[in-house]
Amino acid sequence: MKTFSLSLSEENSSNLKPLKDVYIIATMKAIPDIKRQPLTLIIITFLSFIPLFFTYFFGGQNYDNALVGGMVGSIGFIGLASAVQDITWDRYVKIREMIVAMPVHPLSYSVGVALSKLLYASPGFIIFVVISTVFRILPLSSLGWVVAAVFLCWAALSSIGFVMSTYLRNANINTLNNVSNILGILFIFLPPVFYSEQVWGSYHWLAIIFPTSNAAGLIKSYAGIALLTSEIVLLRWLVLIITTVVSLLLVALKSRWREE
User: Fold this and answer.
1) For residue 216, what are the contacts with CB-CB under 8 A and spacing of at least 6?
2) Within a domain: residue 35?
3) Packing angle, helices 230-254 and 211-223, rounded to 10
4) Which of 13, 123, 129, 201 suits 174 as a labelling partner, its CA being 20 to 30 A distant?
5) What is the domain range of residue 90?
6) How far apart are CA 46 and CA 64, in angstroms?
7) Residue 11, by phi and psi: left (phi above 0), alpha (psi -120 to 50) or beta?
8) What is the pLDDT of residue 93?
């Protein structure tokens, strides 16, 4: 902890300081937890496959949508949950107050926290991608687009969760944990992430509003699961990028970082 405090206070005028802060916070929160509880990686990976099991056994052989949903859901949910739950825990054990007292930007802190939990979700995401490529659901040529879509979705959800956690800083831990679970349902399980957008009928266009279903729709398009025109694909990318940028701006400008 002493090394962490000294590192954050050094080179305040350096242009690389925000990146160093992100790295320090991410490693401080990720490495010790993994060393103490390495089985957490296996548990989180297993949990990300639960929707796939339900889809396979109750939805027949049409599990390609569920595989894509697993890619988005495994990364998106951990980003959203960590932004709320981890930051709440940091506040509870006074780590957040220590960081607030230092010259650390809220964006650096939120990105560091989100990256620390991204390591936990990465094995599940990689397994979903490997399965999709082995069974030729996802072409290798589209992997770059898949990673980009999931990354933007993760960044947007992490930012939304962080901003909400700063506005609910007077709520207790149990309340914020419930809030993160409700947000996970609203963003990941209700929109057409694990299932086809056509289920929504004439309202299928609403899927573009949610970063999760928007990213999933793009991946399904590259996989040939959903037939989208090039214009719609371009529109979806623009909306996803704008959603992510707006979410990051909210973190930088509207999050309640210090007590007023």
Assistant:
1) 68, 69, 71, 72, 191, 192, 193, 207
2) yes
3) 150
4) 123
5) 2-7+17-254
6) 18
7) left
8) 54
The encoded tokens of residue 255 equal: 């999050």
**Cα dihedral 49, 51, 57, 62 sign:** negative
For residue range 201-224, list pLDDT tens digits in order: 888 889 999 999 999 999 999 998
Cα–Cα distance list, 69 to 38, 75, 111, 122, 192 (Å) = 25, 10, 23, 14, 8
- The verdict on residue 12 lying in a domain is no
Please tell me the total count of domains within the chain. 1
| Residue of 141, 175, 146, 171 whose CA lies nearest to 72 | 146
Q: How far apart are CA 111 and CA 21, in angstroms?
A: 9
What size, in residues, is the chain?
Answer: 260
